[in-house]
Amino acid sequence: MLSELKFEGVELSGFKPHAHPELYPTKKERRDLKSLTESYGLEICGYAADMGGYAIASNYEEERKMYEKMFVMNLDFCRDLDIRAMRVDTVSGPKGIPGVPWDVAMRRVIEMFRKCAKLAEDAGIILVWEFEPGFMFNKPSEIIKIVKEVNHPNFKLMVDTCHAHCCGIGLNQPYPLEIIDVPLSKVAAEFIRRLKGYIGHVHLIDSDNTLNPHNTSTHAPFGLGVIDFDEVMRALNEVGYSGWLSLDLCFWHQAWEATRSCKEFLDRLMAKYG
Length: 274
What we know:
Structural class: alpha/beta
Order of helices and strands: EHEHEHEHEHHEHEH
Radius of gyration: 18 Å
Number of domains: 1
Largest sheet: 7 strands, parallel
Number of strands: 7
Helix content: 40-55%
Strand content: 5-15%
Oligomer: single chain
CATH topology: TIM Barrel
Distance between the termini: 23 Å
């Protein structure tokens, strides 16, 4: 279906039963998966790694080491399939980890992201952090602080317009709330402008200002939300972004049914701004 709709690429989910490294343990199986994807004219443009739920900011060194072990396993998977971008998150929920002070947690996240960015660089893979309201450090100032302090050229942000919107309006934030004070339809675009120089990958999808049952942003098909995508595209052009634009219908209950109309919407955007 993606091939028929003339998508150019596809991102793989690393969560079982999808493209988890343990389900494709040999290099031959991984080559076959890559060949199958390419046979439909699709490039694998990104990978969402399953880090096993090991908290980066944990007080337990063993848990943090397990995170590193899982990271390397997923990195090897990306390298074997020639995937050039790998997605990570902060693992823990928006309230953080009991017993771990906020500043300590942030320091541990920054240190781990910096270490992982170097490992990814050595493998020829860009590391992209997908910030979202369902995870720790979801305020705009925290997101900007972390990417600046990681301070590694191979560490970038995955900007999902739905997540950017929801983080910008304060959903799931610990108090005090931090709101991007612009018209509601322009929150995502304004956030993009603030992230100039740090954007490594982009997901385009609408937001209806709500969280889904998984406690993160509801990825509403285009037209069912409030985001001004003309403004989003202008913002992406202004910050000089020229990478992939991915459709993200994660957890939408009728994702396949919505894909065709969403692709038509994206085609109109690309004709206008591409």
